[in-house]
Write a structure and sequence with these properties.
The chain is an alpha+beta fold. The radius of gyration is 23 Å and the shape is globular. The protein has a seven-stranded mixed sheet with strand order 5-4-1-2-3-16-15. α6 packs across α12, α7 runs antiparallel to α10 and α8 packs across α10. Helices cover 32% and strands 26% of the residues. The protein folds into two domains: 200 residues, 2-Layer Sandwich (Nucleotidyltransferase, domain 5), CATH 3.30.420; 100 residues, Nucleotidyltransferase, domain 5. β8 and β9 form a beta hairpin.
């Protein structure tokens, strides 16, 4: 939804004069993410209200410059297991018809859409059969890093810290962005050392990630969706399931090594000592314990990898987080504890769309970075259908968990 001036409205209203200029996909093991740009005829174009696309193009020809189109960069998610819902959404909104190609001769050739993730291979035939789309595949790691770099450099207040219920935005100097550790928590977890534009290395990872939380949670609590499981964890108390230091030391701290009585000594540890069956434990307590166990593990492994390379900044992305306060706090506490306060855990407002944004940006491999965040067109883009010029305005509340959008402007070729 578009959140300009605090108001909400549908991403696309078929009854409004809206034009889709570009669509890109990131189809992961758990979720399929869409990023697409739309322009309304009522949007400002080259600073003039109500200027039509045709008039702008004519202006472009007269001045031998490319017009700037103001619109919305929209985000949408679907469960990958329900990929047919994703296909129906694309078809109903006609997102694939705009694509990245001209529509002068519709049907003359298959439409190519940029896509990344394992699903770009797994569902390639399905997209072609149902929508006539050829998925133009981009490397998953390339897209992930490109998306993170772009958002950190261009979007105002993209990064923030969260600990002790305190959220604080971090001002990122794009000239001092690198190096950093990017931890992408999807179905599994990938950890990438990013040293510059197109310069990165996957240094570690773990199979214990979002898919683990969802899968075990489904088995243990009967929850039918990831969001339902997260919501359940809000109401839980992990101390009913986890064995704490205080449980071992008679309610006392183990101060000699810096462990408080409330520190988890063993996740799910109470289950081995209590004379209770699984049915005797509340589902919300199990969900809370599971979330904390996985988050603590990821936070610790992330810091250890940052330590290997002397990195002080760790950016966490991926749809596992979902702006969930307890998840972010647990990751932050783990990084803070193991680093003794020397390293920071930072989070991204568009955390789940890094790969999709990178896929979206991959249409331009010839000079996009020179065009970023400039207020005026300084040169024509090369070999692309568009290039992002700047982010005009982002979400008013700083959230982006899907089905939302940010205002931006693009160059139309």
């Amino acid at each position: 939804m578009d959140l300009r001036d605090g108001q909400t409205q549908p991403i696309l209203d078929p009854n409004q004069p809206t034009h889709v200029y570009h669509l890109a996909l990131d189809i992961g093991g758990s979720l399929a993410k869409l990023v697409y740009f739309t322009k309304d005829d009522n949007h400002l174009v080259d600073g003039e209200e109500g200027v039509s696309h045709r008039k702008t193009l004519q202006k472009c020809k007269d001045s031998k410059q490319h017009p700037v189109l103001n619109g919305r960069l929209s985000f949408k998610t679907f469960e990958t297991s329900k990929i047919n819902d994703c296909l129906e959404f694309i078809k109903s909104m006609k997102l694939h018809i705009g694509g990245s190609q001209s529509q002068e001769n519709p049907g003359s050739q298959p439409i190519a859409i940029k896509a990344t993730g394992g699903g770009a291979y797994k569902y390639a035939d399905l997209f072609k059969e149902r929508l006539g789309i050829i998925l133009d595949k981009e490397d998953e790691m390339d897209c992930l890093v490109a998306g993170a770099n772009f958002l950190l450099e261009v979007v105002h207040q993209e990064a923030f810290t969260y600990m002790g219920d305190q959220k604080q935005f971090v001002q990122i100097d794009k000239n001092d962005l690198y190096p950093y550790l990017l931890v992408n928590i999807g179905s599994g977890v990938g950890m990438i050392k990013v040293e510059g534009e197109g310069k990165f290395e996957r240094v570690s990872g773990t199979s214990i990630g979002g898919g683990t939380f969802w899968g075990l949670g489904k088995l243990l609590t009967k929850c039918k969706s990831f969001d339902e499981l997260l919501e359940l964890s809000y109401r839980g108390n992990n101390r009913q399931v986890d064995m704490l230091v205080g449980d071992i030391y008679g309610g006392m701290d183990y101060s000699k090594i810096g462990l408080s009585s409330t520190t988890i000594a063993s996740s799910f540890g109470k289950a081995i000592s209590d004379n209770r069956e699984r049915e005797d434990y509340k589902p919300e307590d199990i969900a809370r314990s599971l979330l904390r166990m996985i988050s603590n593990n990821i936070g610790q492994i992330s810091y250890l990898n940052a330590l290997r390379f002397g990195l002080k900044r760790i950016f966490f992305g991926g749809f596992f987080i979902r702006k969930h306060p307890f998840t972010m706090d647990t990751l932050s506490v783990a990084v803070n504890f193991w680093s003794k306060g020397e390293a920071k855990a930072m989070f991204l407002r568009h955390e789940g769309f890094l790969g999709a944004v990178g896929s979206f940006m991959s249409s331009d491999k010839h000079g996009l970075k020179e065009l970023l965040a400039k207020d005026a067109v300084q040169k024509s883009p090369s070999k692309l259908s568009f290039a992002v010029d700047k982010i005009l305005r982002s979400l008013s509340d700083g959230e982006c968990n899907g089905d939302e959008s940010i205002e931006c402007s693009v160059y139309a070729a």
